[in-house]
Amino acid sequence: MNILIGYDRCSTCKKAEDFLKAEGVSFQKRPIKEEKLSAKEIHEIRERSGLPLKRFFNTSGLVYKAMELKDKLPSMTEEEQEALLATDGMLVKRPIFLYGDKVLVGFKEKEWGEAMK
């Protein structure tokens, strides 16, 4: 099952959801704020994606900025960063779309369209 991990009040997540519906792609929604990802899930998703861990942080979010993570992340281990991401769904870049064996982070229509070919 394809899973769209997002936040209902996020306009980018809404655009991604509308795109998927228009493309006829079935998916299950997982609200990131209510159903946070565990550190283990974050680790597995990141490994599956092949993306650097930094891509999973919502760097424009209020929580990220309030915690001054821009300065703190470089000195943290990957395990510490994954554990931190698991503490608050608002720290996680969204949406995340688990599509077959692919992981799409952040919505870019062209990228998502190509991934679905």
What is the H/E string?
EHEHHHHEEH
Low-pLDDT windows of residues:
none
Number of helices: 6
End-to-end CA span: 17 Å
What class would the helix/strand composition place it in?
A: alpha+beta
Give helix % range.
40-55%
Gyration radius from CA atoms, angstroms: 14 Å
Looking at the structure, what is the overall shape? Answer: globular
Q: Strand order across the biggest sheet?
A: 2-1-3-4
**What is the residue-averaged pLDDT?**
96
Give the biggest sheet.
4 strands, mixed
Kindly estimate the percentage of residues that lie in beta strands according to DSSP. 5-15%
> What's the number of extended β-strand segments?
4
Model description:
The chain is α+β, with helices and mostly antiparallel strands. It contains 6 helices and 4 strands, in the order βαβααααββα. The protein has helices at 11-23, 39-49, 62-66, 69-72, 78-85, 109-115; strands spanning 3-6, 28-31, 96-99, 102-105. The chain has a 4-stranded mixed sheet, with helices on both faces. A hairpin with a 2-residue loop joins strand 3 and strand 4. The radius of gyration is 14 Å and the shape is globular.
